[in-house]
């Protein structure tokens, strides 16, 4: 067998190839792209037997996606995407000085897949459709997070010179495009006080708001309330910053809506979509996010426990001497954890999930711990549905929990 450590950068890869005894056969720097992958295959052919099976070539690299990784998988190599934190901890075996180099990282990666390969997770063999869902679902969620950060900056700026706008537009939500357009039209207190009811109504009508007359009257009254002010030049400077943030938010709203359509389209085209949508609390967007993070490789999760551990919903036990504690798992995929938390909350309308949640609360579990336990149970049910290729059934999923005596 050959073991390859691949420390990648934007334009090159530092690689080291070892044999089964750990002897370094070659260390080289390869360019990114077709030329680099061809040179890597040539090195493998030169240092391996002529009839070496590609599956006997094991590669460790600190990423699990991209054209280079796809090329390694297409060649038939075993590829392990390793967390950089794991590599850093592994390198502490060699020394604690903190020294770092690209060649040293390539050496550590080769050692890791040779020594600890059984403890590492290979890059999942997800289908092309699942990879497409992952790309658009992550992009959609990233834009939503970016919108939240931009809104917080906008809100903080308004509080410093025009806090009345926050109260006046509270009924519209300040992240909505119509509220942002009004803010751009009149970004200072003096300008906002001069907005007429007709101007406000026109913006609300363009965005098809209901009860426009009442909303416009309330907004106008809020903008005309007396409030503390700042000097005119300072207000003008703040207004320029607010207009910039508002225009960025409008652009984000447009792109989020466009990506949402792409997320639904790619998700509904996946053969597992029907199973995901049968689960309580899962719609198209949440289902796409869960599918994107779990993937669809049927061999990736050997059991429901393995899927729960990856999801981060199962607890971890810390036992040492007389100390024994059970704690929440915080080293996890945050995107997946966020989607599963939303699913658990939305699923409370289902009788089975509500009964299970109420039992956790009756055991003095807090709101978040109870939702986390419910999410853990739902991940197990999802695993069973995917394994047997069956849709969610309320009676089957909660049959053994329905007979348990209540602890209330």
From TrEMBL:
- Which GO terms of the molecular function aspect are on file? DNA binding; transposase activity
Q: Which segments does the entry list as coiled coil?
A: 242-269
Q: Tell me where on the tree of life, at the top rank, the source sits.
A: Bacteria
Task: Tell me yes or no: is Cell cycle among this UniProt entry's keywords.
Answer: no
**Keywords, in A-Z order:** Coiled coil
Cite the Transposase IS110-like N-terminal domain residue spans from the record.
Answer: 4-163
The processes (GO biological process) annotated in the record are: DNA transposition
Domain Transposase IS116/IS110/IS902 C-terminal as annotated: residue spans: 275-357
Listed InterPro entries: Transp_IS110-like_N, Transpos_IS110, Transposase_20
| Name of the molecule in the record | IS110 family transposase
Q: Whose protein is this, by species?
A: Streptomyces adustus
């Amino acid at each position: 067998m050959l073991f390859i450590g691949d420390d990648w950068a934007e334009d090159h890869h530092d690689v080291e190839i070892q044999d089964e005894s750990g002897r370094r056969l070659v260390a080289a720097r390869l360019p990114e792209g077709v030329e680099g992958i061809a040179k890597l295959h040539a090195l493998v052919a030169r240092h391996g037997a002529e009839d070496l099976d590609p599956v006997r070539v094991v590669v460790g690299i600190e990423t699990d996606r991209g054209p280079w990784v796809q090329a390694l998988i297409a060649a038939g190599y075993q590829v392990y995407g390793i967390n950089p934190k794991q590599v850093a901890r592994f390198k502490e075996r060699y020394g604690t000085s903190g020294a770092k180099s690209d060649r040293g990282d390539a050496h550590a990666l080769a050692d890791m897949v040779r020594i600890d390969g059984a403890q590492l997770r290979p890059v999942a063999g997800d289908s092309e459709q699942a990879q497409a869902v992952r790309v658009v679902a992550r992009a959609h969620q990233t834009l939503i997070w970016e919108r939240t950060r931009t809104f917080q900056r906008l809100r903080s700026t308004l509080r410093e010179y025009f806090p009345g706008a926050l109260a006046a537009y509270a009924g519209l939500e300040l992240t909505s495009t119509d509220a942002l357009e009004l803010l751009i039209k009149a970004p200072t207190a003096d300008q906002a006080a001069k907005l007429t009811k007709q101007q406000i109504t026109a913006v609300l009508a363009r965005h098809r708001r209901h009860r426009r007359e009442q909303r416009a009257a309330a907004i106008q009254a809020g903008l005309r309330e007396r409030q503390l002010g700042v000097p005119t030049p300072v207000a003008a400077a703040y207004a320029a910053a607010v207009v910039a943030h508002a225009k960025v938010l409008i652009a984000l709203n447009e792109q989020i809506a466009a990506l949402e359509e792409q997320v639904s389209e790619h998700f509904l085209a996946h053969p597992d979509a029907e199973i995901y949508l049968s689960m309580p609390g899962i719609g198209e967007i949440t289902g796409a996010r869960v599918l994107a993070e779990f993937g669809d490789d049927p061999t990736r999760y050997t059991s429901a426990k393995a899927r729960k551990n990856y999801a981060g919903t199962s607890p971890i036990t810390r036992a040492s001497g007389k100390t024994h504690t059970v704690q929440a798992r915080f080293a996890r995929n945050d995107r997946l954890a966020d989607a599963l938390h939303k699913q658990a909350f939305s699923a409370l309308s289902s009788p089975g999930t509500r009964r299970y949640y109420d039992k956790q609360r009756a055991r003095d579990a807090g709101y978040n711990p109870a939702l986390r336990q419910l999410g853990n149970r739902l991940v197990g049910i999802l695993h069973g549905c995917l394994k047997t290729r069956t849709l969610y059934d309320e009676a089957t999923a909660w049959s053994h929990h329905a007979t348990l005596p209540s602890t209330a």
